[in-house]
Design goal:
single chain; 685 residues; alpha/beta; 9-stranded mixed sheet; 8-stranded mixed sheet; 26% helix; 21% strand; disordered N terminus
Length: 685
């Protein structure tokens, strides 16, 4: 990635380097003596006024794994910004405590105030960049007033684009254009100031001036008075897609592409119940036969939904066309049962096994039994059956273990490429399920250990955080996709959606009324068109929001969604197409296996603990980065292309390329106590 060259500057009472000399020197340039280079700690200062733009950038720092210190302007006991708060000397070397500064606007302490002056002097001295999280267009930030050929108003639904300068810099991971979310009045709108740049201002994100001529800036760099500010002139929060798309560039600019932590875009889709069949939604009774609250018994009046050999062929072909691998979460025993009931042959199984190398495979237990408490179905909703002494009846350790091992052994015998450590229990059963089962089945942890399970899936809507199950297994939270397991056609999907999200007056269940977690449809969906026109865009938008938020957690659907009308494909197509339209080829979506996702979540948790405990020291002196952390801790680092890692003898290329940078989880080499990286000579942004 090409970058504009800027000076890193520092001064002491004994010496002041000239701007020309600094431009020639640059950070880490050959010939710069240790005495000429300050220490820049890899930590960000966040000055928080409580508004959503600062909170959004803070969330991005947190997600990426970048250490930061917050000064809360609403706290009467907050720290005061002074020279000694910002910098000091360590072993004779001048130290800048923060590599970048996030402010609510260009001067939150007041122009000319002692704190504002201390901050500006610090930035001039050490060449520290500043992000103005949200401000208005005016000459003080390098922009004309909006009355001078600009515009101010709501940006929802408008298209913006990364400029040539933005693509050549830290926003080069984007293909160029993106659209602001078009929100209704109940959601925060993106109000913005579109303005013409003045001297010293370089725009990175532009938008055509509404009802005007030419383009105006929404994000750009203002270089003045020996300082650099990234000026953002639109409002946003951490959940809006436009911020999620731009957040990487904002943070990379802020840290000059050298920081702790890493951020990537992830998308994985688990397809549950493969080889089994799924019950079908009854559009007349508005329930699913076989469910405890559906009168009529399992399957009465409906036929189960199950993939065919043609569906399997389509799945393999779709993967090849999209360069994307599905995780087939399988129940071999259910498939064997279906086979025995249908003449002893099964074209679906034959086809899936013929294409077995095309997929990843995950153990889903042999017959998809409920592995938690014994369910008492005489009540609605069901409850946990009790022993004579009033204790809860649970499935035994031996029975749980058999469900896991029998399925694994079948897969092994049929040549499935399996990872023994991965498991998805039926309905995530065995784990606590509120309100009926507030604790894990006490027999679950032992059964997982018996079978070498290290990663077991959980439902992100119930338990979004990773946690341990016993001493050897960790959960991998999965996002349930709003493509229902009990539908095979688009019309069935729209019908069930109407039942859940339409008011009682409109023929729905009414559960959406007075519900804090959902809202009712304005009117029921047309069952002929509602899925494609309403549900698919909504679900794809939700999933894409996860993808672009550095969130590795997988999504899950069911084999029924690959059958009949193949309802899952339009959603996945829209997610992948939307992603491709936004991101450059150097920023591919990461499609990880369950164990890799679990490992990523585990490393992040350990890293956050180490950072929060003050156990991490990281700094940059010239072209050398040094990081120390507790022994055994994997350290996430992002650095420019050309960065090398110091070995006991020599160096090696650091990390893997992503989004124009290089990043990796890394540890000190043998006999070393710290991770040491050598930045390329051209690393100055």
């Amino acid at each position: 990635m090409a970058h504009r060259a800027h000076a890193h500057r520092w001064r002491t009472t004994a010496a002041v380097l000239t701007a020309a000399g600094l431009m020639a020197l640059g950070p880490g340039a050959p010939g710069a003596s240790a005495a000429q280079e300050p220490r820049i700690d890899l930590r960000v200062l966040v000055v928080d006024n409580g508004d959503s733009p600062v909170r959004a950038i803070t969330a991005q720092l947190e997600s990426t794994g970048i250490p930061y210190t917050t000064v809360n302007l609403n706290d009467a006991d907050r720290a005061t910004i002074t020279d000694t708060f910002l910098s000091d000397t360590v072993n004779g070397t001048p130290r800048a405590r923060y590599q970048g500064v996030v402010l609510p606007n260009e001067a939150p302490f007041g122009t000319g105030s002692a704190e504002q002056t201390a901050l500006e002097t610090y930035e001039q001295t050490y060449g520290i960049p500043q992000v103005d999280a949200y401000t208005w267009a005016h000459p003080g930030v390098g922009l004309d007033y909006t009355s001078q050929g600009g515009w101010a108003g709501t940006l929802d639904g408008r298209e913006a684009a990364v400029t040539t300068a933005g693509k050549a810099g830290y926003f080069g991971y984007l293909d160029g254009a993106f659209t602001f979310e078009d929100n209704d009045s109940s959601v925060q709108e993106s109000y913005g100031f579109v303005a013409k740049p003045r001297a010293g201002f370089t725009s990175y994100v532009d938008i055509p001036v509404p009802a005007g001529a030419g383009s105006g800036s929404l994000i750009g760099e203002f270089a003045h008075d020996g300082r650099r500010e990234l000026v953002v002139t639109f409002a946003y929060n951490e959940y809006q897609e436009q911020f999620r798309v731009l957040a990487r560039g904002i943070v990379e600019w802020l840290t000059e592409g050298v920081h702790l932590g890493q951020s990537r875009n992830y998308f994985a889709v688990h397809v549950d119940d493969v080889f089994a069949s799924d019950s079908r939604w009854d559009t007349e009774r508005n329930c699913t036969p076989g469910d405890f609250d559906c009168v009529g018994g399992d399957g009465e009046g409906t036929t189960p939904i199950r993939m065919t050999a043609d569906d399997a062929q389509y799945a393999a072909q779709w993967q090849q066309e999209h360069g994307f691998t599905l995780d087939m979460v399988y129940n071999a025993g259910s498939g064997e049962e279906w086979k025995s009931e249908n003449g002893g042959s099964d074209a679906l199984t034959d086809q899936l096994l013929a294409d077995k190398a095309e997929y990843r495979w995950i153990n889903h237990t042999y017959t998809h039994q409920y592995l938690g408490c014994v369910q008492d179905t005489t009540t609605v909703p069901w409850s946990c059956a009790q022993n004579a002494d009033g204790s809860t009846q649970y499935m035994s350790r031996a029975d749980i273990s058999a469900e896991i091992s029998d399925n694994y052994d079948w897969g092994l015998a049929h040549g499935l490429p399996l990872d023994r450590s991965e498991l998805v229990t039926g309905e995530h059963s065995g784990l606590r399920t509120l309100p009926q089962q507030p604790d894990d089945n006490p027999n679950l942890a032992g059964a997982l250990a018996d079978n070498g399970i290290g990663w077991t899936a959980s439902d992100n809507s119930r338990e979004p955080g990773q946690r341990s199950v016993g001493s050897g297994a960790l959960t991998v939270p999965r996002y349930p996709m709003n493509v229902y397991y009990n539908v095979g056609t688009d019309a069935e999907m729209a019908d069930e959606y109407n039942w859940i999200y339409a008011s009682a007056a409109d023929g729905g269940s009414g559960v959406c009324e007075n519900n804090p977690t959902s809202t009712c449809l304005d009117e029921p969906l047309d069952t002929a068109t509602g899925y494609d026109e309403y549900i698919v865009p909504l679900e794809a938008r939700t999933a894409l929001g996860h993808v672009v938020n550095n969130d590795p957690r997988p999504h899950y659907a069911h084999q029924s969604n690959l059958a009949e009308d193949r309802t899952l494909y339009p959603v996945m197509d829209k997610v992948l197409a939307g992603y491709a339209a936004l991101f450059a080829d150097n920023t591919p979506v990461q499609n990880l296996a369950q164990s890799a996702i679990g490992t990523e979540l585990q490393r992040r948790a350990a890293w956050q603990t180490a950072v929060a405990g003050g156990q991490v020291t990281a700094y940059r002196i010239g072209g050398k980065v040094t990081v120390t952390a507790p022994s055994g801790t994997s350290v996430p680092v992002t650095a420019p292309e050309g960065t090398t890692k110091q070995l006991p003898l020599g160096t090696t290329a650091f990390g893997t390329p992503y989004a124009g940078q290089r990043s990796a989880w890394t540890t000190p080499e043998l006999l070393q106590t710290a991770v040491t990286l050598n930045l390329p000579q051209t690393s100055a942004p």
